[in-house]
Amino acid sequence: MSAISMILVVVVAFFAGMEGILDEFQFHQPLIACTLIGLVTGNLIPCVILGGQLQFIALGWANIGAAVAPDAALASIASAIILVQGGQGVKGVGTAIAVAIPLAVAGLFLTMVARTLAVPIVHIMDKAAEEGSFRKIEIWQVIGICMQGLRIAIPAAALLFIPSTAVRGLLESMPAWLSDGMTIGGGMVVAVGYAMVINMMASREVWPFFAIGFVVAALTDLTLIALGALGISFGLIYLELKKGGSNNNGNGSGGNTGDPLDDVLNDY
Amino acid sequence: MAEEKVHLTKRDRLAVAWRSTFLQGSWNYERMQNGGWCYALIPAIKKLYKTKEDRASALKRHMEFFNTHPYLASPVMGVTLALEEERANGAPIDDTAIQGVKVGMMGPLAGVGDPVFWFTVRPILGALGASLAMSGNVLGPIIFFIAWNLIRWGFMWYTQEFGYRAGSKITEDLSGGLLQYVTSLASIMGMFVLGSLIQRWVTIKFTPTVSSVKLAKGAYIEWNKLPSGANGIKEALIQQKDGLSLTARKVTTLQDNLDSLIPGLAALLLTFLCMWLLKKKVSPIVIILGIFVVGVLGHVIGIL
């Protein structure tokens, strides 16, 4: 890997680390992080595929309140670097994913450390606020963000200096039954992400839509975009019918003015 | 104090909206988003307050505890801007009123933001992008990135402006029908798409052979009786098209039997198992590692 590639990898890792806490541009999502690593190292396609597969696993990972989710940033950056260093191309994706999972857990601890280290930072900002110093608050906010960036950039840089022959040797010493089994596990593991999302969204009202989605996908060749269009149409139809139903039961002739939802929609 | 009223221009509000991108930068276990919140408000405080004491007390009151969904901080930000503007113009709004509005709004709004953004919009966009990416298509990540950031920025700017205009009335407005409508539509579409994604993307293949039947003569291609050369290939393809089996034995695996019920049944059951485990408070990490162990063991003993 050339020096420029290595610097760019560290930069990408830095951005992913920042985003792991900010959660705005989504540079820390596997789909983006792996693709960027692939782009700067010239291994675009295998990394895009890795990103896609990891994204499915990470679908339900989210920071809720003060709880910390498994760290998608470290998992995607490190597994993409390992994929590139291993030099196996698309064939290495299965093993890279298997490595990513323990890394996501390790990243969780790093996140907790960083969030604890931020406590003294806001104490310094408190002092700055008392002095009425805008600049100091701004500087320490930026330092806080950089600390989060380094949380991923440092491990990424360390991985770069482990010679690729060592990574490759380690991966090749893995017996076939283990890597095949890992690939099989990788096919099933996405169910966990879906299960988390369903647990959040499911209610008696929406379960039938889940069943329809499953059956339609099983017995047709519709693409995901077509399925998405079907889903949103079902939703619109259902809410429209529900609205009409409650209207008619409510005041018989159900005029538009009696409908609070319509009024709200008209107001916007 | 100046006689004229100070107003926050669109430029000021845009500066605040841009800075609220970095809301969580100094997220800490003590007061969570407080540092980023204060950081985001700096352009407004600079504009509204001129004396050092006023500025210091404004900064201090915005270093208090704050935590919500990062995008839904924007409407709270808008309301706070409106309140601070009135206060700077002499309205009797004290520190507790401002803190009260912030705390009063952050809880319910976080409750809206997590299911809508983290559990509906991101999984759907992510799955759409990932399904393209898995076939090596670079459009997958690009679509995800652009769509997400358009939605995010549009939402943050619009709701901050909405909060700014509505002032302290926003809390009542948000409990109205529009938000509920959007939430139900999102969850219906989400469940539909999830149902199809589980069918398409969770892969389990059981390999054990259930039966192996010798086929009758004429039901399979007799390779040794084909003419040689290209003609033989042609003949074989024609016979296959007519429905002849490639081998003399018909092998049925457990997977074939399951698929004749409905393809993807095992994936569905696995998902239900995961949901049940999650409800039992089993950590997702434990489940993920467990699935890998099952995958390897299952492969070694030959059922997967």
Could you describe the 3D structure shown?
Chain B: One of its GO terms (biological process) is phosphoenolpyruvate-dependent sugar phosphotransferase system. Chain B: InterPro entries: GatZ_KbaZ_carbometab, PTS_IID_man. Chain B: It comes from Liquorilactobacillus oeni DSM 19972. The complex is a heterodimer of chains A (268) and B (304). Helix content of chain A is 79%, strand content 0%. With 268 residues, chain A is mainly alpha-helical. Chain B is mainly α. Chain B has twelve helices and two strands. Chain B has a two-stranded antiparallel ribbon with strand order 1-2. In chain B, helix 2 (34-48) packs parallel to helix 4 (73-88). Chain B is elongated. In chain B, 41% of the residues are buried. The model of chain B has no long low-confidence stretch (mean pLDDT 83). The chains are: A mainly alpha (268), B mainly alpha (304). Chains A and B meet through helix 1, helix 2, helix 3, helix 5 and helix 6 of A and helix 2, helix 3, helix 5, helix 6 and helix 8 of B.
